[in-house]
## 1
Amino acid sequence: MKALRHDATALYDIPGPKTERRHKMYGAVSTLIVLALVGWILYLLFDTDQFTYTKWMPFEYTGIQELLLRGLGNTLKAFAMAAVLSLVLGTLLAVGRLSDHKPVRWIATLFVEFFRAMPVLVMIFFIYVALKMEPLAALVAGLTLYNGSVLAEVFRSGINAVERGQREAAYALGMRKTQVMTHVLVPQAVRAMLPAIISQLVVALKDTSLGYLITYEEFLHAGKLIASNLDYDLPFIPVVMVISPIYIGMCMVLSWFAQWVAERQRRNPKTEAADVAPAEPGTLLPGTQ
């Protein structure tokens, strides 16, 4: 039997009693597995005395707190610079790949394919060692080249995914290519591109941790300094337990921001469908009965 959901446009099969029981069983088994894994991790942490006061006391010191805050600030600084520059570079490369001029399109394609295939760490090390740039500049440059190249493909794919008839109708109205891109294609493509854009920015945020390899004093580098100066066994575990939730929280904030932007777009009058009045009897055209 087929049914149509009110909030969707696709048909689906209504699950029967056996299917519902099977899905509930899958959910229960998955929950038990997750709980068992969490319990096993907690057991290992308690078994190795990771929650004793001695191992958490150093985080009460003002110097350690300031070191962590300074590292977090440097991480956010590098991420903000890399995110803005990646979006700009991605836009320019996407425009180049969509250009009608073959030389421009070829150059943009070569740039994108090269830096998208190059490992981020290799680029950061090359810029830092060969070009002798400062750690912050090397980190931001490496992140920008990689993430900008990936975002260029996201932008290009999103624009090409817009229905072809939209483009043809705009050209039929006499609009230039720039007008078609800015007023027709891009506004419709942004909603589809937004999840991929935010996902790539989350990758850029996590990749800022590579800065500690070139002595940039970011969040992970601060944690490494703290752990290396603690005089008990397994000092990295408490540090990781402090740093990891903050990284996860920052990524969740980015995801929340993406959802907020998407909701605002849906409520934007320019993107909402106009209400059409129901058809009513009217005056007949001349020559009709």
## 2
Amino acid sequence: MSTTTRSAPPPGTQDPPPPLARPAPRSGWRRTLRRDWQLYSLAVLPLLFFLVFRYLPMIGNVIAFRRFEPGGSMFGEEWVGLRYVRMFLTDPTFWQVFRNTLWLGGLTLVFCFPIPIVLALLLNEVRRRSLKRFVQSVSYLPHFLSIVIVAGLTLQMLATDGPVNHALGWFGHDPIRFIQEPEWFRTIYVGSEIWQTAGWGTILYLAALTTIDEDLYEAARIDGAGRWQQIWHVTLPGIRPTMITLLILNVGTFMAVGFEKVLLLYNPLTYPTADVISTYVYRAGVESSSFSYAAAIGLFEAVIGLVLITSANQLSRRTVGTSLW
């Protein structure tokens, strides 16, 4: 039995080894920008908005440490350091408005944050499409009303000769001066906030509910879970990331209690419970022309908001694993 042997090719005649495959060059940001410039152009106006109305005005915070006079230098006349900070820290009126801000911010967070969740869960259980759409439309409508209209409606409804006092008169109750009595202001403010924002706040939660897998509900029913148990063990964990994100955002705006609504609803008689930091800054800066003093208070409020949102984000990341950054 013969075997054939293949002789080796003479030196210098071997085929060269195939070249190593090189990774395709990554497209740089210039190439990406040229390719998708239409999409990036959509971000130009929002970026300009934040640059002009959010970041550039931060330069004006320097007058919190300089003496500013109307008509003088835009960045103040002379450096005064922490003079205006010490002024509002020793001002009893400031601590009164600070407490009012905490009260209104806390009540708004406690009541206005969970109500959209509850409303979204209730709407999710409605099976009749017509009823569900009607409730959604009615609850969304107040969001599209301006704050001026909402405040006007509130003042008219709660006036001494308004519909609410007329209804109380049918039961033999004397008219209540809701607008003039300080103890009623927080209830009025929080109630109007719930009426205006609860329906609109359900949109994100209803969208999050549609992402929950129906197989999870089927498995829960097989395990004998009732409707409330399904909501507790399936629905709420499914929308937890959305809840945490909105909670962090709400905590970040905790100190920024609605300036426009408070300004439209309050009056000198309700200052003890209605005057908040934003309205106090308005009166000090615009009405009294104490711009440096108002800037120092506004900067103090912004620092507190930054600390709150950062702390809430870190706490959320460590406890539930969900955060904004």
## 3
Amino acid sequence: MDVSSTGLRVLRQIAESGSFTAAATRLGYTQSAVSRQAASLERSAGTALFERRPDGVRLTPAGLTLLRHARTILDCLTAAERDLTGTAPRTELVRLGLFLSAGAALLPPALTRLAVTDPQITVTTTEGTTPSLIRALRAGSVDLAVLTSRPPHRPLDSESPRLHTETVADTELVVAASSTGEFAGRTTVDVDELVAAAWIAAPASNAEPLLGVWPGLPGRPHVVHCARDWLTKLQLVAGGFGVTTVPSRLSPVLPPGVGLLHVEGAPAEVRRVLVARLPGRPSPAVTAVTRAIVSTA
């Protein structure tokens, strides 16, 4: 095979972002340049590497095989560049991905623990939805990811080999509402009362569900504000501009003016927090970061 490092980077970014367009944006290329690189890779491999589906682009089994080798090759090139330029890191780096509400409750205590037990480890973080972080793990863009799963807790994706996961905790989904608004002074709410509520939710796509609306709502939600940032969502809640769902684990970091309501009249919505990585023997640094995260439960 005759492939370039650019082609391998394009392969990795397509695997992570799930589309040619998003890969081009993240790499700073035109979409036609990404398409040419993808076509060149397939010609060199002599087989299809990409499968175009309604929800985006996925790698074929052959594409996943090449991706596994691409991760190793690109990591070696990065290490070689550092050696040649004399910029080899003095610490062990772990790239950590977290789903959108995990950082506030899990990240500070985990990093505080690591600073004491493993000061030689440097952690960099990125946020994303669980589906996007799974793609990032598969692509090798993150070493470890904190993800969320809902019952019956099936495998996180259909690709092989399965990701290695470790449970951090199970947490109940609740509704955040203004302490001085319609639900002031209450700790519970009937699901039927939420049908007419104004909701604050994260934008949805074909591959990712609407985040922030009660999953078992018996009716079409009335979404008045769309925001991914949790500080924005919770400050809107505090101001009485709507309600949103949050994991109960966020209760210690809620801003003033926000209360939590347990939902009655519907099955409990429990979410499992997981730490996931690629299968195989982890590095000592990845093991240490995993241990620090699990210890926060």
